[in-house]
Amino acid sequence: MNHAIKLACLGKYTTSPNPNVGCVIVKNNNIVGEGWHVKAGSNHAEINALKMAGYKSNGATAYITMEPCNHYGKTPPCCKELIKAGIKKVIIPTLDPNPKISGRGILELKKNGVIVETGLLEEKAKKINKGFFKRMKKGMPFVQLKLATSIDGKTALANGKSKWITSVTSRNDVQNFRMLNDAILSTSKTILSDNSKLVIKKEKFSNKKILISTNKHIKINIPQPLRIIIDSKNRITPMYNLFNYKSEIWLIRLKKDNNIWPKHVKQIILNSNNKIIDLVKLMYMFGKTNINNLWVESGALLAGSLIKLKLVDELILYVAPKILGNLSKSSFIIPEIRTISEGYKFKFDNVKYIGSDLRMILTPKY
Q1: Residue 362: how many CB atoms within 10 A of its CB?
Q2: Which pLDDT score is estimated for 309?
Q3: Distance CA 258, CA 260 (A)
Q4: Does residue 144 contact residue 294 with C-beta atoms inside 8 Å?
């Protein structure tokens, strides 16, 4: 199962909106087939493993990182293929959280005489699909909020300049996180001040090689994340660097403007009674449009609002060994807290040196 989970992770850049899934087929204590889901719309992990195993699948055991599907989508049901191949036993860590599938795959297998065991390495298997699980269960994506600060918690000087607080190494590390997410969320204020493109740097990460065994690599093309900008006051125009790169962009607004926008730009109107974008409503919209994982790069106002509304699942904090002073801008804009016990609490999950900076990954204690 550990090997199946490693295989599943090979699809982490390309399977969305589908989950990462790996499959290992074992017969007489030998691996006879293995596979993973490479890309949405392509063969599922089970099919790839069965193709490798061939006739050896008959009477074998399949270790699959998630319950196999039992419905026709872009590909045929994996359960039927496992049964047809003569698999005698299926071991899975967890049911598929998709309500259209959950439990039905297991039922189909059992009806056809296949032994099914569940629960092996369950938490580890769920962790590799945390965005998919959250979207299926709560209707929202898994949200990672990234901030880069000085050691006194400042994100920009009083004049708004923030380039560059952290090191080149930290900024390259951010590129890795961008690759793992379906979409990047920012605000018009951030674009107006930084004129950022919010893209993966192609010269660094296109045709990325991933190791699939001790001495074998494959090349994959990593898609650019969807770029989403909250622009409730229609302040952004087509002149900014953001629009020079022709990958999809959504402008989240309260009303349309009269600008002529490139074809890769879409204005999405969210109705609101308060003349501000409803962030909870926005997250549910992202869930309905199949966004599993959302990366947020923004200023203090959106960061504070997301924390206050308990919409952040992980805080990715890069801390540079610099002091920027009292007049510089703070990381969050949050209403005054009167007692220590009312403060928003977090748990350190991982702390690591990234070049000269510290990278801290924290989870909120909501």
Answers
A1: 18
A2: 95
A3: 7
A4: yes
Spatial CB neighbours of 343, under 8 Å, sequence gap ≥ 6: 337
- Would you say 57 is a known binding-site residue? no
Report which residue type is found at 331: S
Phi-psi region of 306 (alpha: psi -120 to 50; beta: other; left: phi over 0): alpha
Is 297 annotated in a binding site? The answer is yes
Ligand-binding site membership of 107 (annotated)? no
Q: Is the pLDDT of residue 162 over 80?
A: no
Can you read off the two tokens belonging to residue 228? 């989403």
Q: Which long-range contacts (CB under 8 A, 24 or more apart) does 38-45 make?
A: 38/10, 38/11, 38/14, 39/11, 39/14, 39/15, 40/14, 40/15, 40/16, 40/74, 41/74, 41/75, 42/75, 43/75, 44/68, 44/69, 44/75, 44/78, 45/7, 45/8, 45/21
Task: Classify burial at 270, counting beta carbons within 10 Å of its beta carbon; exposed 0-12, middle 13-18, buried 19 or more.
Answer: middle
Q: Is 122 a catalytic residue?
A: no
> Annotation-wise, does 164 bind a ligand?
yes
Q: How far is CA 159 from CA 143, 153, 203, 333, in A?
A: 29, 16, 32, 17
Sign of CA dihedral 69, 72, 74, 80: positive
What b/e readout covers 171-208, taking b as 16+ CB neighbours within 10 angstroms? bebbeebbbebbbbbbbbbbbebbebbbbbeeeebeee
- Out of 34, 46, 81, 314, pick the active-site residue: 46
**Which residues contact residue 207 at a Cβ distance below 8 angstroms, ignoring those fewer than 6 apart?**
219, 220, 221
What pLDDT, on a 0 to 100 scale, did the predictor assign at position 214?
Answer: 47
Going by pLDDT thresholds of 50, 70 and 90, the confidence category of residue 332 is: confident
C-alpha dihedral (84, 87, 93, 96), degrees to nearest 10: 10
